[in-house]
Design goal:
The protein is an alpha+beta fold. It contains 5 helices and 14 strands. The protein has one domain: Penicillin V Acylase, Chain A (4-Layer Sandwich), CATH 3.60.60. The longest helix is centred in the middle third of the chain and has 17 residues.
Length: 242
Amino acid sequence: MCTVTFIPAGEKIFISSNRDEKKARSQALVSSHYAMKTGKVLFPKDTDGGGTWFALHENGNVVVFLNGGRVNHISMPPYRKSRGLILLDLVDSQTPFADFLSIDLNNIEPFTAIIWDDKRLFECCWDGFEKYHGQLQPLQPHIWSSVTLYEEKIRSKRKKWFTDWLRENPLPSTDAILHFHQFTGEGDSRNDLLMNRDELVGTVSITSLELTEKTGFLTYLDIKSRQSWLHRMPFTKTAVEK
């Protein structure tokens, strides 16, 4: 939930996420398909809260969360509902961006949602008091780093790493993106993309989605076991034609 990239590459879109979490949290369940109210949704499941940080709907929409809103905040639990369950509320919809605008977020911990909705890209923030949102250019690459873990100086440095890497990899593959998310940095384990802070907080998994016109391919890499899984989500006819 703490580093996300969006990369347009020809006729494909790649959305990838490093999940940086407390090592004490339970290991997540590998990505799987779940039947929900509006259709099938593919996502890895957080076993502690039952939610997720990355989800693909069979209508082609995607929602990915980062911890924190526009600035760092002090966590003050208990909250009414986990952010991972809020993500599922948003993705279980034909219009996740519109649902972000209307959903009640009172007593929900701050988050940033990257929403791919009907081939439109949105950045949506909740700071604990107000919602903020903006539509982004889907033909340009983007990178986000969570404000709860990375100060502005480090976030800017990561953007430069991303820009430099894209210059050498203008049309990357999933494997190249996974390599970027694992091995980019300066040898600083606290702030490299694959991070580890005193074995208390670290990158526990990487999720990478390849979107084509008719299908999504979701790769889930568990860092501890070094195992990876690939799942396919064919999009519904309605999603392709909309």
